[in-house]
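Researcher: Structure prediction, please.
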Amino acid sequence: MSVNTWGMAGEIRVVFDGFGTKTDPEQIERELDRFLGQELARGWTVLHRQPGAALLQSQTETVSGAGMARAGGAAAGGIGIISMIGGIFLFLFGALLCLTIIGAIIGIPMIAAAVTMICGGAAAGTAGTAVGAVGLAGSASTTLYRRVSVWADESGRLYARDVC
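Model: Predicted structure follows.
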């Protein structure tokens, strides 16, 4: 029996029992195509195909702390922007209150609070961007690849083995 190998060998497992007798090569190819179609529907990709054999790959995204940092950075950036917009409205309302002498007693502290709110929002936005950038840089290594070699023998039996 000819065994196709790509990379280091893993444990060989039977994925289709075959027909029990020597089978027509076209029938074996149809059965291999049927199996590959099922695996494509499950998210696998065919990297290499030759008569009687194929190399499949799956790609899995994992959730890591870096992905959570990216989401947290986006949330902090959004809160910073909302805080800056609220500070601008508060500043305009304080300036409107300062048009009268009595209103200035309330308006001047309101303007000071608005300036603090705008600066705090800018700082939160900057911190959120930095945290998001760290999460983005750390998330580049969160993709796992798995490769499987599939081949058929003369009876139509399909074998699979994990390869590196």
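Model: The chain is about 55% helix and 25% strand.
Researcher: Thanks, that helps.
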